[in-house]
Amino acid sequence: xxxxxxxxxxxxxxxxxxxxxxxxxxxxxxxxxxxxxxxxxxxxxxxxxxxxxxxxxxxxxxxxxxxxxxxxxxxxxxxxxxxxxxxxxxxxxxxxxxxxxxxxxxxxxxxxxxxxxxxxxxxxxxxxxxxxxxxxxxxxxxxxxxxxxxxxxxxxxxxxxxxxxxxxxxxxxxxxxxxxxxxxxxxxxxxxxxxxxxxxxxxxxxxxxxxxxxxxxxxxxxxxxxxxxxxxxxxxxxxxxxxxxxxxxxxxxxxxxxxxxxxxxxxxxxxxxxxxxxxxxxxxxxxxxxxxxxxxxxxxxxxxxxxxxxxxxxxxxxxxxxxxx
Length: 325
Prior knowledge:
27% helix, alpha+beta, 7-stranded antiparallel beta sheet
């Protein structure tokens, strides 16, 4: 839908003494990837958070700039609802959610601090999928919680506590009549997805020099990965039906690295290139930038990267040399 409003945003070269773009009667269009205003555009991948205040909408960007949209008149509620809806859908797209949605609720949430975002609590959409819980605040802190890597899920009064094996703790709740059904179905799906992954992993064969194995998404039964470890190194081989390559990593804590590796692979699903694309390549891939920002595990894995080994005649020798380091 098109809107007419006043629009004000600092230019990219702003700062102290910087210039402003101030438009009256600007035509504003929200689409699935961002917001168009006049001759400019805000991509959702650049948005840190959005908020309404005094019948104005503020969009704060990662670079510190802030857009102010005012004088929406009777269109204010519709504009805000559409902005929140499409920003949430884009966040879901960046989490690569393809599985069946079971519940969609308005709920309170409490998200722990991450390496790119402070602790955040509020109220927003909380969705239950067949293999995950998704929390969609009106910020870049949206996340997908894989049920296969939960340690325990417990309802305490009106609040559902989700504890991960790596220690992160999430809470959602106060969903009204949906609270108990959400908790029950969440626990049920966690048990089923863990059992399904264990069964599918049993069909994956390991051969030298590989010693570990894992799946991407649970439903992707034909795609998997294998690992080989050195003392402080790890090689990961992806089996996806595409050109094969071995990905190399260095780490300090093997247990933490293994957990994060498994979570990162599960998070990216069929979009494995996210784990190795450099910053220059990511400039033209806004959805991937959003994905990296929303996954602690993916950021961790990328930080451990030590390169790749292409499958040539020298592959086996290079692999042995790396693992011996």
